Every structure is written in C-alpha cells, then in structure tokens.
Amino acid sequence: MTNDYIKTELKKYNVADAEIAKLKKDYLSVVVKDVNDKETYFLCKEGHQIVKKLRIGIEAKRGELLESSREFTKAVNEEAKRLTLGVSEVEEHLLIQRRVVEDEKKRLQDEIAQKEAEEADRVKREEEERLEKQRQEQEAKEKKLREDQEKLEADQRKVQEEKDALERAKQDQKRREREEIERKERDKQHAIEIKKAEKEAAERAKKEEKERIEAEAEEKRQLEQQEKDEKERLEALKPDLEKIQALASRIRSIEFPELSNEDTVAFVSEVETNLLGLANELQEFACRQ
User: Fold this and answer.
1) Crossing angle, helix 70-252 and helix 38-65, to 10 degrees?
2) 79-100: pLDDT as tens digits
3) Residue 66 falls within a domain, yes or no?
4) Which parts of the chain sit beneath pLDDT 50?
C-alpha cells in the first residue's frame, strides 16, 4: 500500500484542515455572556450541531477506511485522531458555551419544579391538617352524642332498675306470705300425719306383740309335741334297738377257727373284718336313736 494510495484514501474524509481552522476561528472565540445572551447561545447551539455532525461523519468515514489494511488502518486512525482532536476542541468549547444557557435553564426548571413540589406538599399538608381537624371535631361531636346517649340510657336503666327492685320487693313479700301459709299448712298436715303414724305404730306394735306371744306359744306347743313324739318313737324303737345291740355283741363274740391254709386264712380274716365293721355299724345306729 503506497503513500499515494493512503493519501488518496485519507482525502476521502473530505474535511480539510482549512475547514477545521475556519471552525476554530469562527467558534472558539464565541462566549455566551449570561443566560440572557440568546443570540450567542443560538449561534453556539447551531455551530455545535454542525461540528458534532462533522465529527460523526469523520467517525463514520473512519469505519469505512479501516476495512482496507492494518497499515491503512493505522494511518486512518492517526488521521481521524488528529482531525477529531481539532474538531473536539471546537465541539467541547461550543458545548461549554451552550451549557451557559442550558444549565441555567435546567437550574431554573429544577428550581420551579422544586417550588411547585414544595407548594404541592404545603397544600397537601394544609389539606391533611384541615381534614384531621375536621375529623377530630366530628369525633368530639360524636363522642359528646355518645356520652349524652349513654347518660340518658344510664338514667333510664336506673329508673327501670328501681321499678324492677320495687316490683321484686312486692313479689318477694307475696312469695314470703304464700310460703308462710304453705309452711303452716305443711306443719298442720305433718302433725296430723305424725299423730296418725303414732296411732298406726301403736296398733302395729300391739298386733306384733300379740302375734309374737301367739307365735311363742305355738312354738312351745310344737316343741313339746316334738319332744313327746320323739319320746314315743324312742320308746317304740327301744326293743328293736336292744335287739340290734345284742346282735352286734353276738357278732363280736363269734370265735373264728385257727386255719393253716393261706387262702382260707385270708378269706376268713376278710370275713372277720367285715363282720366287725357290720357290728360297729349296728352299734352306731342303735346309739344314734
């Protein structure tokens, strides 16, 4: 890539040093005196837009030229830097000059907005205070009405309670009189019942005593009859009982022979034992009677 080519490509920026020099000459000496210097402000604003547009064009062209080669890119960047530096000086100066008016304008707008906000807060606060005062007054009225109503209701309750107490006293007096009459009637009836119960108890005791005497007499008669019957029964059994006792004696007096055979000895011994048992049973029967 030759220098001639590079120079040819760089010329595509289409911004001459003379033009930048003219911009510096035209605008770097421009100074906005104060917020009221509208003519100079609009001159700076217009010039700033022109210079800004020129700088943006340089940047756009730089992008196009950078597509060639690294060497060309370096040259393009250096030229863009050089040109941008010149243009930026004018741009920054003009921006500073614009801000003389725009910053003040913004400050005034902010100040107005702040005052409006403060006024709105004041109005809101006053309205809230008014509503709060109105609410408190309303609450005070309602409280007074409630207290008056409560007092009236308390007085009415007191009157009603006194009437109820008087009526209860009358009812209690009537109830006591009625209870006294009922008590006397109960006492009278109780005395009658006690007298009746005492009479019935005396009659019942007399009847029970008679029945007891009759029962004892009957029991004595039955015992005497049982003793008589038992005596007669024993007297009738006496001959038989004597015979049974005599039989038991005879059985006990039986003499058994002496035997030598083992089987006969065992048999006779068993018979002797059975006979002695029978004699004992006969004796016990006779003694039980």
Assistant:
1) 80
2) 888 888 878 888 888 888 888 8
3) yes
4) none
